Amino acid sequence: MAVTMGTPLTRVLGPKTAGSMADQLGLHTVGDLLRHYPRRYASRGEQADLADVQVGDRVTVLAQVRSVTTRPMRNRRGSLTEVVVGDGSGRMKLVFFNHRHAQLKPNAWGMFAGTVGEWRGEKQFAHPDMHLLEGTDDEDDWARALVPIYPASKDVSSWVIQKSVKLLLGASGGLEELVQDPLPEKIRTRHGLLPLAGALLDIHRPTTLDDVERAVGRLKWDEALVLQLTLAARRRAAALEPGIARPRRSGGLLDAVDAALPFALTEGQREVGEELAAELDRDQPMHRLLQGEVGSGKTVVALRAMAQVVDAGGQAALLAPTEVLAAQHARGIRELLGTLGRAGELDGDPAGTRVVLLTGSLKAAARRQARAEVADGSAGIVIGTHALLQEGVEFADLGLVVVDEQHRFGVEQRDALRAKGNRPPHVLVMTATPIPRTVAMTVYGDLEISTLRQLPSGRGGVSSSVVPAVEKPGWVDRAWERLREEVGAGRQAYVVCPRIGDVAGDEPEDADGAPPEDEEGPRSDRRPPLAVLDVAELLRSGPLAGLRLDVLHGRMTPEEKDATMRAFAAGETQVLVATTVVEVGVDVPNATVMVVMDADRFGVSQLHQLRGRVARGRHPGLCLLVTEAPTSSPTGQRLAAVAATSDGFELARLDLETRREGDVLGAAQSGRRSGIRLLSLLEDEELIATARTEATALLATDRGLADHPGLAAEVAALATDERADYLEKA
Length: 730
Ligand code: ADP
Ligand code: MG
Description:
Elements: H1 15-25, H2 30-34, E1 40-43, H3 49-52, E2 58-72, E3 79-86, E4 91-97, E5 109-115, E6 117-119, E7 122-126, E8 129-132, H4 139-143, E9 146-149, H5 158-169, H6 174-178, H7 185-190, H8 196-204, H9 209-240, H10 253-260, H11 267-280, E10 287-292, H12 298-311, E11 315-319, H13 323-337, E12 354-358, H14 364-375, E13 379-384, E14 398-403, H15 411-418, E15 426-431, H16 437-442, E16 448-452, E17 462-468, H17 473-488, E18 492-496, H18 532-541, E19 549-552, H19 558-569, E20 575-578, E21 591-596, H20 604-611, E22 621-627, H21 634-644, H22 648-658, H23 661-665, H24 685-699, H25 709-720, H26 725-729
Parallel strand pairs: 4-7, 10-15, 10-16, 11-13, 11-14, 12-13, 14-15, 17-22, 18-20, 18-21, 19-20, 21-22
Antiparallel strand pairs: 1-9, 2-3, 2-5, 3-4, 5-8, 6-7
Helix pairs in contact: 8-9, 9-24, 9-25, 10-12, 11-12
This protein binds adenosine-5'-diphosphate (ADP) and magnesium ion (MG).
């Protein structure tokens, strides 16, 4: 039987290899293997690889043997062989016990794979897997300028993959027989793209890097087009299932909110407000992302949209990432609405509505009541945490979903809430962490974007400084003095630590607040991060003695947290020592100082978020980033960058650059199974936009993809892929 892309690898490769490929790399079919692209290409000419590898990396390198020395071991029987490989720029030691590789001689070329270790400050491989390049069957491959280095696994080395691919490429009939090009000829020529067979051949066996570039260009096109076709089809389907228009009505909640606001809206807030008001007035569900600098006043924009929906007879739900934040939103909104938010109560205005807070910590009876009010529609405004998403929470008529701090939620969570509408509700998601346009377009399913760039006027702004604790210990004392001065002037302060403390080795407060990858080596070499409980104790008995100080962290019960926040908001507590629970949204305008301990343990965007807690009133804020990292280290420079700019958009870009895209998109939202292998949502904006135009054109006729069975099949494959679920729901 002829080999096709769908042929199981077990039929073309040995059972052991095929088994390991399936188990360790998730490669099951010929197509899977052909789409397992090299990670990079090594060449014998330029050899920068060795200088770049990091301790702890699992890598495959192409290198030349410099020297081989064998000596008996001192304390044990047997011999130790040290092989130095490398070139001018980098070298590395390979260590073998009782080595028996006679061919491993100076000047031999080989590929070596393993986990990079370190011994007395030198990088080394202990017992690497290796494949020497002198030889018989591979001669032709090794003679090539470029050697593909594949993502490999324990039992499937890069060179085994290379050999297996070669087998497929050389199969009878060749690649042209094996692969059907799904791309319409017209599109291919219009954009000057290689045929699929040629692209696959070139990506696996290129002669030059130009070959690779052209191949990648073509293969990315397939990914972008299939993705955009899927999204375009979904847009058409969504247009067929309209939502409900929620027109603005005067004399209701919205007017009351506007009258009660203690400030004038900024121009940006007004503009975005108009945009939202108009969109809510359509039966095409709104699908909008509101991104705005920390402290730019997103909440009130959301509240006004919620009020409009309630005025129109619907319900609005606000999903917040933490109980502290949900409770704060509920408090603020209730205050603003006054009697209009207490319909049904003794002093309530019957023309108003009810504001319900639904969190995981509600006692059974309170939860029952809250759910009942949500279900019968008497609660027009429903605020909550993940508890909102649970089964059993039913809305009478959910008209608007607002997701605060979108970066803390997955798409699934937003969609779980969205699904609680009888008809698709309007959706507004808010974030202070900007999302690139293509990501909003694809991963989040065509979100329109509004931006609030302006901060309300009269803000004092925050000035930030790095306090290098090792280089300038005196500055740390000065930091506590500054804090005392502020508190003496009637202000309040936060001290933020990465860890809670008390329990040995407890983890950072929340997984998603994990700092970016360490530049300074393995974590285990470093002392544990400073902990809230320890630091609070030290401060109480030391530099901050006599101040009213309290702690806030995730191990406290929700009641304790709420009481602590209230006391702080009321000014009873002067200094709050806390974990990142204060990161998002917490709003106490009288707080003006924030001292971040071990600031190097936080990510760039996170620090910016944290700092946003002290820029919220008319008094200028001060943020001190205390760190033991040397000023000149990459970490020190990262902190300096945070201190130097208050532009969250610029910092977000810096953050994106230092993180991998997978982290940005979330593990489930990127990766091989979703059909995206080469395409970068961050870097391929233009290509994605072009593919979008082609996709729309392809679907514009009644025949849809009927004339393009290859493409239709790819789209169908993506749709049935369970991991592509997120697209389905977006
Ligand atoms: P974020 O966009 O970070 O969520 P918030 O909505 O919490 O910001 O607003 C930050 C603070 O600014 C709040 O205290 C809020 O009441 C206040 N605020 C919002 N809009 C204005 C405005 N137009 N003028 C003055 N203060 C405002
Ligand atoms: Mg907010």
